[in-house]
């Protein structure tokens, strides 16, 4: 693979995972906590970053009732470095950067604040960093998702969740496209393509890419290549195994067919009452029920994605 | 035939133009299935009219590819035929069109899938350990000469595996429905 050449030159920094997916309450935090705990137990140093500013509660998932530091301290300039607000959890190899007590307007970071935070996240000393994103498709959420190595979308087998996931996917795609286009200084090309879209019948990213190729073969090709790298992963949560697999396959196919985006199916997480039980007890599921369906499914997702990262 | 329009047809199926017959078949079926069924994954992306449009453009692309492949194999066997079709010498590099509907006529569909891959009944029998007589009864849907349903289901499963069928469930279920309601 092309990427493997680059990775040998790259300094070995942490692997950044971002967990999003549009809708609230679909299990983003439960799943990211599960994946982090699984890797932490394998001896990998993991840090979870609660980037759901304004609705941060990752500390509760980890059983920490009152997180001491918070991202808000960074923005209020009480601290200068993310390391200072890093708190160990009660589990080995797992620490948290909480987003609790963020002030109301803090959910709207400006671009520089965001860049600074992303830079600091990338320089944290860890093997894996999980950025737990809030619901919705705001620029905050999109930019973290784009910056990560692995973008995980969590979807439940409900119409609303899937609709939101498509909206999210399209928003991420166009946000990333803007960046790529800006870097290539091809704004004009894309703007004309987009403003002519009614005439030329461009309705999806896939059609836009083909249209760009026709307009300008060289730049169009570059944009196409960079956008091809955008390949989010899909997790179907709270499903039955067979139903989930079928839905996952359909979504992957639909994303390719309608948007021209290659989504990979990371796995299915089965419905499991013990998730709720452990949440009520304010303990991570993997700690309380290490052998339940949920834990089993999370482990196979981790296994698959670490296998793919090596490949 | 116009090369660029054939090229477009391959793009329509999301395939490179050197895709094998099997890939063409599978991609076409997968996509057709996606547009036909009411799925949570697609209802918000298209209305009835659009899905009909997509279905007919899909069918068009598929027909065009098959036509192109057929003319390639009859005009120019020496050069490109062995590459483009999955046919083995036994099948005389004949391109078999798989046009049976797996839900209406699963037996014929399996037979066509087998022939498209240049496999003889013997090949399938050797691999599945199911006798050629039973395999033939499956293909011809001679339900009376088949054993109990539980065995037949097993036969179908291994048959589907042998012809590398992605959507085996549809074929098996349709066959069993016909078999048990005979």
Number of domains of chain B: 2
For this structure, what is the CATH class of chain A? Answer: Alpha Beta
Order of helices and strands of chain A: HEHEHHEEHEHEHHHHHEHEHHH
Query: What is the CATH topology descriptor of chain A?
Result: Rossmann fold
Determine the fraction of residues in helical runs of chain A and give it as a percent range.
40-55%
Strand content of chain A: 5-15%
- Write the H/E string of chain B, N to C: HHHHHHHHH
Work out the strand percent of chain B. Answer: under 5%
How many helices of chain A? The count is 15
Looking at how many chains there are and whether they match, the oligomeric state comes to heterodimer
Features:
heterodimer, A: 311 residues, alpha/beta, Rossmann fold, eight-stranded mixed sheet, 52% helix, B: 182 residues, mainly alpha, Helix Hairpins, 434 Repressor (Amino-terminal Domain), 9 helices, globular
Descriptive overview:
The complex is a heterodimer of chains A (311) and B (182). The termini of chain A are close together. Chain A has one domain (2-158, 233-254, 263-310): P-loop containing nucleotide triphosphate hydrolases (Rossmann fold, 3-Layer(aba) Sandwich). Mean pLDDT of chain A is 88; it is low at 1-9. With 311 residues, chain A is of the alpha/beta class. Helices cover 52% and strands 14% of the residues of chain A. Chain A is globular and about 55 Å long. Chain A has an 8-stranded mixed sheet, sandwiched between helices. Chain A contains 15 helices and 8 strands. In chain A, α2 (28-41) packs across α15 and α6 (139-147) packs across α7 (159-184). Chain B has 182 residues and is mainly α. Chain B has 2 domains: 3-79, Helix Hairpins (Orthogonal Bundle), CATH 1.10.287; 106-180, 434 Repressor (Amino-terminal Domain) (Orthogonal Bundle). Chain B is built from 9 helices and no strands. Chain B has helices spanning 3-12, 21-36, 48-75, 81-84, 106-116, 121-128, 132-139, 149-162, 168-180. The N and C termini of chain B lie far apart (45 Å). Residues 77-93 of chain B have low confidence and may be disordered.
